[in-house]
């Protein structure tokens, strides 16, 4: 018996009536534009068995229900006519409700039927409050009565409304059933329950797919997943759970998301377990304070409105596309770049992210990635996830491990939340070994470190502590984790530079620190100096003019062979990280001019730091630690510093300073000799 058959047999034994063959969902889904949890609710009623004849009979029954009762928008008029002519008719449609305060009544809108203004009793609204927040799919018994006395009232009447969700969840059934499966089998069950075929994915991909489910089981959990298109990033939040809502396009208001002052009602975060933003590039608030309120909520699960503190439990999910290769993104900027401009350099916003799922490690969806095997009915899965929000598994971490000293309070909270969420999914019955807890802990640490590595690039030394570790309480052995895309790649490559080509690090127009490459071309000519790549930055142009004037006046002090009269010097500056041009180029440009004129390369993987005046006075470097951190992330292993900065080295963490071979220069001419490796 192969593993898949064995799991199917166990599922039908221990979760009888709670499972469905996922290829049935696929087949029927292709012909009906209805969420998977609606379909599987029906399939669970008629096809929750492994008896082939009963399944076929059940499928026909579900098809008939969808054919007769599911409202297709293009057949809305036909259904309306049927309700009128027959007098009473059952339909399946998405129902949303609004309070009409002018008439003091609740009014329902039926999405596919295209009918609004249907009076609905407040009993339904009190029992199912999600009717007021985006709406829910329901089975409705509709009647028709046209009142001559009240021609403004809708003639459609909701006689009975039953939401498509499970009425009761027996958690003991889950706990007992889970004990019959190994960890690997249960992971496969969870993934098959969402419609995916786990045998088609590598182990690390299965963990990422499972991590997408953590917001469903963990309160106030903030996660981000950016990656290529068509990897199924938003599918889970749109189709699998009736307790999550997907905000397409990303545009919203404070009233809609948090609290509506006019109606005095909580927004989406108070109504749903998960609020997911599809396409983060489009996130925007019509209100000026929207981002700040979101930051408050992401940090504490609360926000202030009308002198009151409001609390909610919804988790926040941010999904979006990365349109370039991760390598080039890591080299040139950071992995939060796809966020909109008002957020994408806000370290305080991203510091609230508990996990970053690397979407680029998940393959694009193909037909063979979808399962034909049995899985839990998604409605049952959703109820299980919802019940697990009431418990926490963070104590499982403290039982065996403690976290290393590089993790601050926010890091600890983030790691514990990811850990707790994954433990709830994999070990809801509370039985696990130390090695199993360690596996989950390492995944949680890597996810948070990925966030921290980006924060280091955005915010500098404040986020320097990225060497995440955990300590085994029994052996006191400390283990460290790393992320595959860690650091800045090779902006500054290994190997020899061309003469006249070198790198510097300075603060740019955007107030961020970045890497700049200077490229000099020396041609036969008549002493012309041309500069490019500076845009309209007059301070940058001035710094290059300073360098050339000093070069003309002092070139003979470097070498008698340098000519400024029968050569043209064409100097180009490249902003390697797209943060805006810098005015801190004078000294590096002078070294580049000398290197090019002598046709001698500077030392490999070196950054040349510092600026100078027209008279050759060297200015001290501000924020030395931050500048060295950027240089290290970019791939530099040698640094040339002005002697005036030697006193500031005590401000640089020793483990960072030890990464460089450091040389000091007294003046610009000394800087040239040191850069060229000439004693």
What would your notes on this structure say?
- It is a single chain.
- The chain is α/β, with parallel strands linked by helices.
- The protein is 37% helix and 22% strand.
- The protein contains 25 helices and 30 strands.
- Strand 3 and strand 4 (115-120) form a beta hairpin.
- The longest helix is centred in the middle third of the chain and has 26 residues, at 434-459.
- The protein is elongated, with a radius of gyration of 31 Å.
Task: Count every beta strand, where a strand is a DSSP E run of 2 or more residues.
Answer: 30
Measured distance between first and last alpha carbons? 75 Å
Give average pLDDT, whole number: 89
Evaluate the radius of gyration. Answer: 31 Å
Number of helices: 25
Instruction: Report strand order across the widest sheet.
Output: 4-3-2-5-6
Sketch the major β-sheet.
5 strands, antiparallel
Low-confidence stretches: none
The proportion of residues in beta strands is 15-25%
Which key terms come to mind for this protein?
25 helices, elongated, alpha/beta, 679 residues, five-stranded parallel beta sheet, five-stranded antiparallel beta sheet, 37% helix
């Amino acid at each position: 018996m192969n593993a898949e058959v064995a799991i199917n047999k166990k599922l039908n034994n221990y979760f009888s009536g709670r499972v469905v063959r996922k290829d049935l969902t696929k087949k029927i889904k292709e012909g009906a534009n209805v969420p998977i949890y609606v379909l599987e609710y029906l399939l669970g009623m008629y096809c929750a068995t492994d008896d082939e004849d009963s399944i076929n009979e059940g499928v026909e029954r579900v098809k008939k229900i969808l054919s007769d009762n599911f409202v297709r928008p293009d057949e809305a008029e036909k259904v309306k006519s049927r309700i009128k002519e027959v007098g009473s008719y059952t339909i399946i449609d998405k129902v949303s409700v609004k309070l009409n305060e002018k008439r003091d009544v609740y009014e329902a809108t039926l999405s596919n039927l295209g009918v609004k203004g249907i009076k609905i009793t407040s009993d339904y609204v009190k029992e199912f409050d999600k009717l007021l927040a985006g709406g829910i799919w329901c089975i409705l018994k509709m009647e028709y009565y046209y009142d001559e006395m009240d021609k403004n009232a809708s003639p459609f009447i909701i006689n009975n409304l039953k939401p498509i969700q499970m009425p009761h969840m027996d958690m003991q059934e889950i706990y007992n059933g889970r004990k019959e499966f190994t960890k690997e089998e249960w992971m496969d069950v969870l993934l098959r329950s969402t419609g995916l075929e786990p045998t088609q994915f590598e182990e690390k991909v299965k963990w990422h797919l499972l991590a997408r489910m953590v917001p469903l089981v963990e309160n106030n959990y903030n996660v981000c997943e950016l990656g290529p298109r068509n990897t199924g990033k938003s599918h889970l939040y749109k189709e699998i759970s009736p307790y999550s809502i997907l905000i397409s396009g990303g545009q919203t208001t404070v009233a809609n998301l948090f609290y509506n002052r006019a109606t005095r009602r909580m927004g989406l975060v108070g109504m749903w377990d998960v609020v997911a933003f599809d396409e983060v590039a489009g996130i925007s608030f019509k209100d000026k304070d929207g981002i700040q309120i979101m930051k408050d909520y992401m940090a504490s699960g609360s926000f202030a409105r009308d002198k009151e503190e409001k609390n909610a439990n919804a988790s926040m999910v941010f999904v979006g596309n990365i349109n370039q290769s991760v390598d080039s993104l890591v080299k040139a900027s950071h992995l939060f770049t796809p966020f909109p401009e008002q957020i994408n350099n806000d370290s305080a916003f991203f510091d609230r992210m508990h996990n970053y799922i690397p979407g680029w490690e998940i393959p694009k969806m193909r037909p063979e990635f979808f399962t034909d095997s049995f899985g839990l009915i998604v409605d049952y899965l959703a109820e299980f996830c919802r019940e697990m929000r009431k418990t926490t598994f963070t104590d499982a971490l403290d039982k065996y491990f403690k976290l290393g000293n590089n993790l601050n309070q926010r890091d600890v909270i983030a790691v514990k939340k990811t850990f707790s969420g994954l433990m709830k999914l994999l070990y809801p019955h509370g039985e696990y070994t130390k090695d199993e807890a360690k596996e989950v802990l390492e995944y949680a640490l890597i996810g948070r470190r990925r966030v921290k590595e980006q924060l280091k690039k955005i915010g500098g030394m404040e986020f320097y502590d990225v060497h995440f570790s955990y300590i085994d309480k029994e052996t006191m052995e400390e283990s460290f984790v790393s992320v595959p895309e860690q650091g800045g790649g090779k902006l500054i490559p290994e190997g020899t530079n061309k003469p006249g080509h070198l790198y510097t690090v300075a603060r740019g127009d955007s107030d961020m620190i970045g890497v700049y490459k200077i490229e000099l071309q020396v041609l036969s000519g008549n002493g012309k100096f041309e500069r490019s790549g500076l845009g309209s930055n007059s301070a940058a142009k001035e710094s290059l003019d300073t360098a050339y004037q000093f070069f003309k006046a002092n070139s003979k002090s470097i070498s008698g062979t340098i000519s400024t009269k029968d050569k043209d010097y064409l100097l180009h500056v490249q902003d390697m990280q797209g943060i805006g041009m810098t005015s801190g180029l004078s000294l590096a440009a002078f070294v580049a001019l000398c290197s090019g004129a002598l046709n001698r390369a500077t030392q490999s993987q070196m950054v040349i730091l510092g600026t100078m005046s027209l008279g050759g006075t060297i200015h001290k470097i501000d924020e030395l630690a931050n500048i060295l951190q950027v240089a290290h992330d970019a791939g530099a292993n040698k640094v040339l510093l002005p002697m005036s900065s030697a006193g500031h080295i005590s401000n640089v963490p020793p483990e960072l300073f030890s990464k460089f071979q450091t040389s000091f220069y007294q003046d610009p001419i000394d800087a040239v000799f040191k850069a060229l490796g000439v004693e």
